[in-house]
Amino acid sequence: MGAASHDPATMDERRRLGSQRRWVVKVGSALITADGRGLDGEALGRWADEIARLREAGREIVLVSSGAVAAGMARLGWRRRPHALNELQAAAAVGQMGLVQAYESHFQRHGLHAAQILLTHEDLQDRQRYLNARSTLCKLLELGTIPVVNENDTVATEEIRFGDNDTLAALVANLIGAHLLVILTDQEGLHDRDPRRDPDARLISQATLDDPALDEAAGPSAGILGRGGMVTKIAAARRAARSGTATLIAPGRRPGVLQTIAEGGPVGTLLLPNAGPLAARKQWLANRLRAAGSVVLDEGAARVLRTLGRSLLPVGVREVKGDFQRGDLVSCLDPDGREIARGLINYSAAETRRILGRPSHEIEAVLGYVDEPELIHRDNMVVF
To answer: CATH no. for residue 359?
Structure first.
């Protein structure tokens, strides 16, 4: 993991990524609302100008924009983010209107249309809705519009929300097969220590996402308005990497930042995937945020899944957690409780409890029937 540098190999990689066609650009609440003072029209106009230039140069841009709740708070005169769900949803409803109006007016100056896309977790949990969302976004890009994506905060409850727009941006990157995810923030990028507390903190120019030092560098942080600190940005980058997408965390207040990225300039922190992209179906499995239950594996089964990527057999399962049905998404945990894989299970929780620890040839004797010899077939499983 390196501090800021002008290493030729690093610059070549940045130029390659900057020239790629399909980007997702995420802008956070603090930037959109000038740290909570209401929509920052000047900043929105600047980003619209930059995105329009990128579009003119042949890039396809999906904009994931925070700010609906924060903008609504400013419009309603609320100084503190409310905790009650109905108040948050009311603020989102009021703020979303202003947010979309602002983007549309700024993009119209360049002869471009903004297209509003509001998503909930359920839209990406269901395979058919996932494919529909992908089809719509790709058509909007084909039509030359700028899709503006946000979580549908007016209807999302705690059980069905993404958690933060960094996660949403990563899922959108997976959804459309983006080459680059740009997360614009109020920081210069990711530092090796918290720059607000340590003046000697150094900007990390580039790292691969399997580097454990990234988590130490991020530390716990969260803004007053946003839910996502650097920890969520690294988690989002790792999620985006499942489709082969690189992530660049960059300073959103720097004029011309998107153009600098397009030219491969030394700005922000570039986080690179450490493996190739997953197949589309496995991306969908990996990105479903909630599993219906879990199975705890013995060390041998965990090792086979990790190293060989084979199907999960009942003989390797020690414990069943939750009440899932056949076809549900289930997490596979190692003996220490870490999720190492997830997939669509062939037997219910009750059935799995009866056959756990047994070889596959005994399934029929125990249950009276056998559907599949595997608990989870490798084609329906993604290993982390």
So the answer is: 2.30.130.10
pLDDT mean over 276-301? 82
Q: CA-to-CA distance for 223 and 216, rounded, in angstroms?
A: 19
Other CB atoms within 10 A of residue 42 CB: 8
In this structure, are 276 and 372 located in the same domain? no
- Tens digits of residue pLDDT in 328-337: 889 999 999 9
pLDDT of residue 6: 55
Which range marks the domain in which residue 62 is found? 2-282
- For helices 230-240 and 165-176, the axis angle rounded to 10 degrees is 10
Query: DSSP alpha helices (H): ranges in the chain?
Result: 8-18, 29-32, 41-56, 68-76, 85-108, 121-125, 127-142, 165-176, 213-218, 230-240, 257-262, 280-287, 299-308, 349-355, 363-367
pLDDT digits (tens, 9 = 90+) for 351-370: 999 999 999 999 999 999 88
> What pLDDT shows up at residue 40?
87
| Of the candidates 275, 288, 373, 267, the residue with the CA atom closest to the CA atom of residue 339 | 288
Among 231, 248, 282, give the residue marking a domain's end: 282
